[in-house]
Specification:
298 residues, alpha+beta, Tumour Suppressor Smad4, ten-stranded mixed beta sheet, six-stranded antiparallel beta sheet, globular, NAD/diacylglycerol_kinase_sf, nucleotide-binding
């Protein structure tokens, strides 16, 4: 199909990343109108976004739905596109943009727009958590989820705010107890500061918690960050940034297709940057090649 024959719906989070989206949307509309491509938009409000966005899809009848925002907006679009054959586009305008980084989508909205027009599609797995939530990127229980909760509660946005909250949480570390059953095998117990449910390889900060992961292999990884004292964080951080986490004595990585996790201390769970709560159990399964996402041309 030629690009001029396509129909696009842009789902826009106006507060993602803290800045105005006007210049981005003006550029998008000019670029697409110049090519006689119909453009429809829907702005999230935080109230009934799924239902209202679904109505926008039904009305616009697009073949491509584009998330304009951060990882939370991407997750909303993933929910909307589940069990459809619509193409999935991304214009990254969030604070960290972890999923866009993973897919190689440029952070500059003009370049990201060109990817929508001239890019290729590739398959993308997803995780289904507790039969309700979808995770395309990285979800976790413990340390980072606490930081995300602090970040959500603070009025200031941006990476500086996230780092400040992370440092505050780092000095309050305590190990948590978990039981894990992977692919129905014998359960085992772990103490950990954090457990990552990884479809992707790294956070938007560049921390590669799962460097060997693949987005379309039909598997996900459980990354267990074992208990450590705050000053041990720095060598652990170096191993993450250098892509050598598998050599770290503080990290265990398990590959699987299903997982049942008993969250014994009922620690916080976050999914793709959104705090979900303090579930007693976390059940995860892979949804192989659930989406066709637009990425830079090979």
């Amino acid at each position: 199909m030629n690009s001029s024959d396509r129909r696009y719906l842009f789902i826009v989070n106006p507060i993602a990343g803290g800045g105005s989206k006007d210049s981005c949307m003006d550029f998008l509309k000019r670029t697409f109108e110049k090519r006689n491509i119909p453009v429809h938009t829907f702005e999230t409000t935080g109230k009934n976004d799924f239902e209202q966005a679904q109505k926008a899809i039904d009305k616009a009848q697009p073949d491509t739905v584009v998330a304009v925002g951060g990882d939370g907006t991407i997750n909303l679009v993933a929910q909307l596109l589940r069990n459809t054959d619509l193409r999935f586009g991304i214009i990254p305008l969030g604070s960290a943009n972890g999923m866009a980084v993973e897919l190689g989508i440029p952070s500059n909205f003009e370049d990201a727009t060109r990817v929508l027009l001239y890019g290729d599609t590739r398959p993308l797995d997803a995780l289904l958590i507790n039969e309700t939530y979808l995770s395309l990127h990285l979800s976790d229980i413990g340390l980072n989820a606490k930081v995300v909760k602090r970040f959500e509660e603070e009025k200031l946005r941006g990476m500086g705010s996230y780092i400040r909250q992370f440092i505050s949480e780092l000095f309050q570390l305590r190990p948590n107890k978990f039981s894990l059953t992977l692919d129905g095998r014998k359960p085992f117990r772990k103490k950990a500061n954090m457990i990552v449910l990884a479809n992707a390889t790294k956070y938007g900060t560049g921390i590669a918690v799962n460097p060997d992961g693949k987005l379309d292999d039909g598997y996900f990884e459980i990354c267990v960050i074992k208990p450590f004292i705050w000053y041990q964080f720095f060598p652990i951080l170096f191993s993450f940034l250098a892509g050598r986490v598998r050599n770290s004595p503080h990290v265990n990585i398990y590959q699987c297709q299903t997982a049942h996790i008993i969250n014994r201390d009922e620690e916080i769970l976050q999914i793709d940057g959104e705090v979900i709560g303090n579930p007693k159990t976390v059940d995860v399964k892979i949804l192989p090649q659930a989406y066709q996402v637009i990425v830079p041309a090979r």
